[in-house]
Amino acid sequence: MKANTITKESIDKLVRTFYPTILADEITAPFFVAKIGADINSPEWKAHLELLSNFWAMQALGDLSYSGSPLAPHFGLEGLDKKAFDRWLELFEIAIDKVYEPNAGAFFKERSQMIGRNFMINLGIS
What we know:
mainly alpha, 5 helices, 0% strand, globular
């Protein structure tokens, strides 16, 4: 059943739905494998998924569990380009559609597009 409202639990489900697809994708996987590894059940991935759930909870709910700099880890990722960002966004929207009804999912689609544009500008990617 798809979520009609955004909650901490539905955000966690979104993150856990999304990242296995990232690891299975030939365009996006290499960036994550290089930084975090290929085993999504590893302690590093568990910490990353929790961090991202907290990030999206901050974005959507004003939750204060997130601390960090979302842009900083993206500096120095060799080969990171617009194609990779576009694929990340495409896969994220697919995951959003799996987890949320359109009215609730619209927030994540709009916010991820905005964040993606800002990241590309700040990373000098065009």
